[in-house]
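<context>
A single protein, sequence plus fold
<entry> Chain with its tokenised backbone below
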Amino acid sequence: MEGQYIWRHPTCELQGNQCTSTLVKHIKAPVDLVWSLVRSFDQPQRYKPFVSRCIVQGDLKIGSLREVNVKSGLPATMSTERLELLDDEKHILGIKIIGGDHRLKNYSSIIMVHPQLIDGRPGTLVMESFVVDVPDGNTKDDTCYFVKALINCNLKSLAEVSERMALQGRTGPTNRV
């Protein structure tokens, strides 16, 4: 199933000492429900377990900034992120980290969701690509492993939240960017 979307998935351009990867998650919930969570730039804590709080500066639009507070246990307390891409027709969200007290420099992420049938029911294929600088003192493998672990945790949580909402008959939040 992923093969038909890989060629259409926007990728993050790799430069210099950076690492990149694309992760995939199949979710047993309708695409509109999953997309309603993914596109909520102002509420990433709805499915991202390491986010404790998010404050958006100004109106919600391309170029909007958010300050994300990170829960303890990670080597950071906050991150400043910019909304780079939001396409409700193609279900694509892009963000770039522009500041914070962490080592994820020049981090960009693109998330794309696609409808798919899972066990004969409406489901969703989620693909997330990232690119990030490799910090001094780290290897590409170490950096990629760390970021992939964070994204996999977020995707697992997205699946759990979406599937629980689907079972409860909820279709997602009504407030939209």
Summary: The radius of gyration is 16 Å. The first strand starts at residue 18 and ends at 27. The domain at 18-40+87-170 is CATH 3.30.530.20 (Alpha-D-Glucose-1,6-Bisphosphate; Chain A, domain 4).
